[in-house]
């Protein structure tokens, strides 16, 4: 015990240095600003302010250029001596027209967007506080630049630049969230994240495979959760917030609490959230095809069709969720920074609403079709080291273990057998990232990565009349999926106004699967894939003046076949069954971006990005034969055999347009438009629209900001998609689309008019809320199986301390 005490005392003195604290406040309100980033382009030092607007900048001593920036404020550049002369007190002026900001997702390190040729957007905690998104999927949607598809209320599948699901990569605190069973169809894993516990969200548009590896074809969604803050004085730093919220459209009852306790070297952060959602009510005005005014109940050992009193309720869509996060941080000196994070998320069972809409022989196809509890757990240890040597200036090592658990349960109408599939994935990863300045104008980012996924899949069949359970067919083969990679990126400032960057990554992916032939006579019992891929990028950012930004980027990306591609068995549509195909190769993407942004007189900002992507060896579901047969019996129904195959080439192009206008007396206007088109080859040589290219969509906002008040009226809109413009695979899904005059499916255009507001009642208490879908439209986003909320009243209270 005495030895432990001596070690503790020694740690308290290790690296002790003179701390210099800077305080950053709003120039107009004089309130402290949290999450302001202070960075030095020369030494690559950085610091962020805490809830009191304070940061330790001892490491910046003698720096000639310290950049001080955060979203919504004008960037300020000062030397250390200038800050010292001003007693280390800084005032930032409000500006909604920034052309630069600090981003992390481009390289895993903090960079100015001046130096990143890819298009990256940030969604701040201020945006989240005003908009009140219910899930992390909704959080992405409030940007107006990411399209969200939903098959059930407990879901949300982002669609970016014509790509979705396993062709997009999710990153949480720098850790890859994608697993070997991320599927090509729509998935809802993003809802495992807690919007209240997210400190900053960044979306990288276009290929990100050089930094993130397989799956980062269409883009990367990077979530940074709350970071434990250290105290800069002898007194403990205790901060946090408590939230409660109610929404009328689904009778939402949400509560959240987080607290940070920080000392000089140690800090602890705890976050807990509880979400409870009833069945979702859709709007009154819209296509009658979206109304299903009945649901199935089990009564006296019989499935009964119940006619609903409220035909606008979508039953079953109710679900609940709990999120917990615990973080610890230890920073013994300026060199070392240790952070450990524990994340846990669990949902209740929730109905897949689009499957409940299916009809067979004039009645409900299913009595049950539910996802079981979706569980996500992550243990993450980050080790940061900051001292220049011959190999690196900074190092960050991330070790993580994630546990994923999900299941599916379905039972046909008035049939006793409940089919159950349960999947568990244990994912291990280690990332080592380094940064090295090799001169005043050149910086190298490089790193190594290893990922191991172990997949365990079980099938069961339960007779609900006898409660007897017997083994059934599993959805996946038991498998291991491994990825080994090394990457390097070079950033070179050709001049003060032109930055050139390029990089390369080699990734090798190994997959081993064992198939159970008990229930299906597969002509194979195992599959082994070994695929290597070299990807690269080259781009530049040019600023002819302080009000112009021109960027261009060329990049390649790839996606290696995973367990879902190679080995799953499931019914993709009525009368169709997907079977394994072990003969798959990676798909490759080639992308070009060109962006222009311009500020006119600090009043108007226009931002336009055009892109083109060519996808080769695309993995798509096509007709197939199993043991020479084109149809097999699946769950009592003769079904056409299909499989994932490398059988197509796709071309996708589009434009993202943004406009911001600063109006007098605190008013402002902004709008975002997104246009994308894509074609892919079919087996017969014809071409079909790419499934995940969303119709024209966007958002327009009129906002007003005063000292204590922030209000916004916005118009969210989505274009029409006619039958002739529907992807070939969507044309049979009559249960989720509206029907035109010819009886063909189509996705109607829609809009919602929304009002949001936030008012600071005091220094510690905020009230927020609004009315969504004021005109009570009945709408359904493209490819979605559930309608959006009708008129929805939201009320939230937040207490800060």
From TrEMBL:
One of its GO terms (biological process) is siderophore transmembrane transport. One of its GO terms (cellular component) is cell outer membrane. PANTHER family: HEMOGLOBIN AND HEMOGLOBIN-HAPTOGLOBIN-BINDING PROTEIN 1-RELATED, TONB-DEPENDENT OUTER MEMBRANE RECEPTOR. It comes from Aequorivita vitellina. Gene3D superfamilies: TonB-dependent receptor, beta-barrel domain, TonB-dependent receptor, plug domain. The keyword Membrane applies. Belongs to the TonB-dependent receptor family. Pfam families: CarbopepD_reg_2, Plug, TonB_dep_Rec_b-barrel. Keywords: Cell outer membrane, Membrane, Receptor, Signal, TonB box, Transmembrane, Transmembrane beta strand, Transport. It comes from the Bacteria. One of its GO terms (molecular function) is siderophore uptake transmembrane transporter activity. InterPro entries: Beta-barrel_TonB, Beta-barrel_TonB_sf, CarboxyPept-like_regulatory, Plug_dom, Plug_dom_sf, TonB-dep_rcpt-like, TonB_rcpt_CS. This is TonB-dependent receptor. It is found in: Cell outer membrane. Residues 335-774 form the TonB-dependent receptor-like beta-barrel domain. Residues 114-220 form the TonB-dependent receptor plug domain. Transmembrane segments: none annotated. Its main location: membrane. The keyword Nucleotidyltransferase does not apply. It is a multi-pass membrane protein. Residues 1-19 form the signal peptide.
């Amino acid at each position: 015990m005495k030895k432990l005490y001596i070690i503790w005392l020694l740690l308290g003195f290790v690296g002790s240095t003179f701390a210099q604290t800077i305080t950053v406040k709003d120039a107009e309100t004089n309130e402290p600003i949290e999450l302001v980033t202070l960075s030095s382009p020369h030494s690559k030092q950085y610091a962020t302010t805490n809830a009191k607007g304070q940061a330790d900048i001892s490491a910046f001593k003698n720096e000639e250029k310290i950049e001080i920036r955060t979203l919504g404020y004008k960037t300020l550049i000062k030397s250390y001596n200038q800050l010292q002369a001003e007693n280390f007190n800084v005032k930032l002026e409000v500006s909604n027209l920034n052309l630069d900001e600090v981003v992390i997702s481009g390289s895993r390190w903090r960079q100015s967007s001046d130096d990143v040729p890819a298009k990256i957007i940030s969604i701040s905690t201020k945006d989240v506080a005003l908009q009140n998104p219910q899930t992390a999927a909704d959080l992405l949607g409030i940007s107006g630049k990411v399209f969200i598809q939903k098959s059930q209320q407990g879901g949300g599948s982002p669609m970016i630049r014509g790509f979705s699901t396993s062709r997009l990569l999710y990153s949480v605190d720098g850790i890859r969230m994608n697993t070997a069973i991320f599927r090509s169809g729509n998935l809802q894993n993003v809802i495992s994240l807690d919007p209240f516990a997210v400190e900053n969200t960044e979306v990288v548009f276009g290929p990100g495979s050089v930094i993130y590896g397989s799956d980062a074809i269409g883009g990367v969604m990077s979530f940074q959760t709350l970071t434990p803050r250290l105290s800069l004085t002898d007194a403990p730093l205790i901060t946090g917030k408590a939230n409660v919220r109610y929404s009328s459209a689904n009778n939402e009852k949400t509560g959240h609490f987080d607290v940070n306790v920080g000392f000089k070297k140690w800090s602890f952060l705890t976050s807990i959230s509880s979400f409870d959602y009833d069945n979702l009510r859709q709007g009154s005005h819209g296509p009658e095809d979206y109304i299903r005014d009945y649901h199935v109940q089990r009564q006296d050992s019989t499935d009964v069709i119940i006619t609903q009193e409220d035909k606008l309720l979508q039953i079953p869509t109710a679900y609940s969720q709990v999120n917990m996060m615990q973080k610890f941080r230890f920073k013994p000196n300026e060199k070392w920074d240790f952070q450990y994070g524990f994340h846990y998320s669990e949902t209740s069972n929730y109905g897949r609403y689009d499957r409940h809409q299916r009809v067979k022989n004039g009645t409900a196809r299913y009595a049950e079709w539910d996802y079981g509890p979706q569980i996500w757990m992550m243990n993450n240890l980050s080790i940061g080291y900051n001292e220049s040597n011959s190999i690196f200036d900074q190092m960050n090592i991330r070790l993580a273990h994630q546990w994923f658990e999900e299941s599916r349960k379905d039972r046909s109408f008035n049939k006793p057998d409940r089919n159950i599939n349960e999947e568990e994935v244990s994912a291990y990863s280690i990332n080592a990232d380094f940064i090295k300045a090799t001169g005043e104008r050149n910086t190298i980012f490089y790193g190594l990565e290893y990922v191991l996924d172990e997949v365990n899949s079980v099938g069961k069949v339960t007779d609900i009349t006898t409660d007897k359970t017997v083994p059934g067919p599993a959805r996946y083969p038991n498998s291991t999926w491994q990825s080994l990679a090394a990457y390097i990126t070079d950033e070179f400032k050709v001049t003060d106004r032109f930055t050139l960057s390029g990089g390369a990554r080699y990734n090798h992916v190994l997959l081993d699967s064992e198939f159970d032939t008990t229930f299906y006579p597969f002509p194979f019992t195992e599959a082994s894939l070994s695929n290597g891929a070299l990807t690269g990028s080259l781009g530049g950012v040019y600023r002819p003046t302080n009000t112009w930004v021109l960027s261009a980027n060329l990049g390649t990306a790839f996606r290696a076949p995973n367990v879902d591609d190679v080995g799953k068995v499931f019914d993709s549509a009525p009368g169709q069954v997907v079977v394994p195909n072990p003969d798959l190769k990676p798909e490759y993407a080639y992308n070009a971006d060109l962006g222009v942004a311009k500020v006119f007189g600090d009043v108007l900002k226009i931002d336009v990005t055009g892109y083109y992507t060519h996808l080769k060896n695309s993995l798509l579901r096509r007709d197939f034969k199993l043991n020479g047969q084109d149809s097999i019996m699946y769950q009592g129904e003769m079904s056409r055999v299909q499989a994932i195959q490398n059988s197509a080439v796709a071309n996708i192009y589009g434009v993202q347009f943004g406009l911001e206008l600063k109006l007098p007396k605190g008013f402002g206007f902004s709008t975002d438009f997104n246009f994308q088109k894509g074609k892919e080859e079919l087996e017969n040589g014809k071409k079909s629209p790419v499934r995940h290219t969303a119709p024209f969509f966007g958002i327009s906002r009129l906002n007003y900001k005063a000292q204590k008040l922030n209000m916004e009226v916005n118009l969210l809109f989505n274009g029409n998609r006619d039958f002739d413009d529907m992807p070939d695979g969507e044309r049979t899904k009559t249960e989720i689309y509206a029907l035109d005059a010819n009886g063909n499916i189509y996705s109607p255009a829609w809009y919602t008019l929304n009002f949001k507001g936030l008012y600071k009642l005091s220094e510690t208490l905020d009230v927020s809320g609004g009315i969504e879908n004021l005109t009570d439209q009945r709408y359904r986003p493209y490819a979605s199986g559930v309608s959006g909320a009708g008129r929805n009243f939201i009320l939230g209270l937040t207490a800060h301390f």
